[in-house]
Amino acid sequence: MWAAAQGRGVDFVVEGLLVLAAGLYLAAVGVLAVFVGSFGVLIALYLRARWQDSRHSRAGVGAYCNTSLRGRSGAAPLRGEHEGGAPHDTLPPVTIQLPIYNEAHVVERLIAACACLDYPRDRLHVQIIDDSTDETTRLLRQALSAWEGRGAPPVTLLRRPTRSGYKAGALAHGLERVTTPFVAIFDADFIPPPDLLRRAMPYFATDARLALVQTRWSHLNAEDNLLTRAQALSTDGHFIIEQIARSRGGLPMSMNGSGGVWRVSALCDAGGWSAVTLTEDLDLSYRALLRGWRFTYLPDVAAPGELPPQVQAYKRQQRRWATGMTQNLLRHAIPLLRARRYAPWQRFMGLMHLGQYAVQPLILLTFLLTPPLIAGGMFARLPNLGPLGAVGLIPPLMMILAQRALYPDWPRRLLFMPVQGVIGVAVVLNNSAGVLDALTGSRASREFKRTPKFSAAGADWARSRYALPADRITLGELALAAYALGGLGIALARLPALAPYFATYAFSFAAFALWNLAQTRRARRAPDRAREKAVRKPLGAGAVASPLLGAGAPRRSLSLRMERGQVERSETGGEVKPGRKRAVSLRHKAVYLQPVGRLPGAAEQRPMSTKSTHPSAWRARNAPPPGPLPGQAREGEMLRPAAKVPLSSSAGEGD
Fold it and tell me: Is 655 designated active site?
């Protein structure tokens, strides 16, 4: 009797738990369906924008001119902007801010690209905020000295006493010393094309409330490996579908961290840069939007950047973004819902924007709940969820539309969509950890961990000491793979329709984790990684930046000064332990040996419209001498130019 009662009690508890699990499952699936469905709205807005542009094109108006929609979206460019930029006398002064932290592989090419920007030298200034603790500072000074007298704009090199505030702190520190009305920001792994500023700056003259002009990211190393190919698919979908739809539809949008130009008055009005969140660009963007400022996005102006070729580097980047976006959701959700400048549906779309990573734990939750629900026979009692599966077609459709708009060989690129799907599934645990960091306020939510850059080195990234080892979450991914295999067995026995679902998850988690472990093993075994030679050959003059410098570049001197009062730190601190300093060999010469007339990372792209053109050809002349290591400058003094070396006749010299 007592045993029977105890059995009924256990059954009651199990039944209650299954009902609770079913309720959580339905709630999670419903939220996910709404979230993914919001991207269908973005696709509709994108297609409407393309239709409007086709009408404008037939009427003789440039496509993607961002004409206003109810007075809320961006501004129209000055006449002739799409045909090569604005006249010299209409361009405003602008400062380029370059926040640098331990970027030994990419800093030289960044300086070369900025030195070759086609912009009036009396209206352009480059500000470098260098927080590096390794040999990046030495390479940076060497690159600046090499450009001395070669037509580069004036440069200010700032060094901070501490790395407080990380990237946001560096930008805020530099902003205090900016005297121009506009600032353009580029991360260290980007190569701004020569005409980027000429094509972007005219938009500010048409709208006094225009705070930000954001350009599109293209890719320097999209074909490095399967990981970079998958990232290119998802990134192109964001920049072609989502950003165009948000900009043209009057929806809340944000800066993407790099490749954007800010109006300084708007930046200050919004409160300036803040390190409260790990995505300082998103935080500042929403503060500016809620203050009534407007943004615009230029899909035809591309800034090539680097995609992480290492699984662990990609996971670090994604976790930081997940934490930062969730922090911004918590910070700006209520003010956004109260913002009267947006219609209710626009506020909803803004919430979906801020919550892009907040749904990751819900994806993980539905996966974890599915096996017990199958085992308990609960799916027979749930409503039919089949129609909701239609929203699963939206993400692939976004990628297809984006690839078709960008590349002539888009069918070939779409062959890697299954890889993107596998990575999207496998990274859910990593991203969920980032969301939980934001919700709990853990130490990880306050630490900005940079994504290592390898200078599009392809297979050589494993030799860099910036390569990361696999983290503990990798073990969790293997555990989830085993859990998915168990779910596969249950599904085959009781609900075979869900067997492909579990097979996909099992393969995705296992493949991603094993891929990460294999890369970690490869990096540890890379020849000479632990004993890289301190001897470094200078790059040949024809290989440093020859495609970046046009024949008509002005011959003005580069003015480099150290900001007075800044503290120099030891180059053996931070990531490099004293007594074990290792030089990082530069292996990015191939980036500068692209065929003349092609932009690295965008050679295969086609114009977004017949009215637009890609950046002008980069001619391989007037290359700078490599120059030896410059002498150390005392605070407030000019850095002496390095001894000049005759131009090399061989573009392939040096390594």
Answer: no
